[in-house]
Amino acid sequence: MSLLRRVLASNMGQLVIEIVLVAVPAAVLVALLHLIFGSSMEDSLVGDVFLNILEAAVVAVVFVQALRKIEHLSPSEVGLSKHQWFRQLLIGFLGGGALMTVVMIVLAITGSYRITNANPFVVVQLICLIVAACLLALLFTRNKKIGFLHYVLFALLAFGFLPATVSLLILIGGAVQEEFVFRGIIFRKLESSFGSWIAIAVSAILFGILHLLSPTATLVGAIALVISAGVLFAAIYILTRSLWWAIGVHLGWNFFEGPVFGVQVSGHVIPGFFSSAITGPEIWTGGSFGPEAGLAAIFIVGAVAFYLCFRAARQQRMIPRNQLQRIADDTQVEHTDAPVNL
């Protein structure tokens, strides 16, 4: 077997190649757009939306093609099934939103968060959004067929999203890119080589390191993301083996943090429904990076994340490293015992 074939056949080789294949085209495309349009593209909301969606599309296309050509897998085999994808995305979105809501309630109770400005009409739209999303999730759970009521709720959902449409598109692009790379490639390939626990730890650390690139990032914030979000998204993927679930939770977490509650998302200001103010110790609130980097989020999200890990272990969804070794040994025995044609 040639060196190239050995690299392509190994999990770590596939991981490196797929990361390069995903990252390089997206980076080259962004560089070309900057060269053509200049820095003004990112300075405008329309340009920011265009860049995020374009990058996400490139990452998605390259990821799917890498699965098929390198690993000989279909998208459904890694968690991108066409079956009930919207239901998984929607319920995940509501779950991520609910988790962020708990964090913000705790901050409000402790006097660290308050809404400074709210348009009554926009509040009605937000209520429509949440009610429509909850009812749609319930309908998709009980009935797979789409009827008249579904379309009414879709319209209500679109009406609710109107004040934050631009923000939603930006956040969708970010959630898709990060989940495809961190859960779809890094976590999955590490798990195949070292088992679930090591894969959770390493992918979560890398997730935290990525967010250190934010101009307002702190070491405490990065550690917070490792403990909370990095572990949480990996645990959700282990329990569901669905990237739709992971994308949904990630998107819901960011959407409620930014557009709904009006606070910064990983150091970025995301326009939405309310204007708000965060006060108090930065270590508790997350400061200018956002609540995700504070102790409030670490305690709440960390507890949920480790509960989900415990639940996955109880349900035997975790892949232990010794099991991978047994599979490798069995495969080697099969190859050794196979008849040789002379």
Describe the structure.
By secondary structure, the chain is mainly α. The chain folds into two domains: 1-73, no CATH class; 82-116 and 170-324, no CATH class. The chain has helices spanning 3-9, 11-37, 40-43, 45-71, 85-109, 120-142, 148-161, 165-194, 196-211, 219-240, 243-260, 282-285, 295-314, 321-337; strands at 113-118, 274-278. The chain has a two-stranded antiparallel sheet. The longest helix is centred in the middle third of the chain and has 30 residues, at 165-194. Mean pLDDT is 86; it is low at 327-342.
Question: How do the strands and helices of this protein lay out in sequence?
Answer:
Blueprint: H1 3-9, H2 11-37, H3 40-43, H4 45-71, H5 85-109, E1 113-118, H6 120-142, H7 148-161, H8 165-194, H9 196-211, H10 219-240, H11 243-260, E2 274-278, H12 282-285, H13 295-314, H14 321-337
Antiparallel strand pairs: 1-2
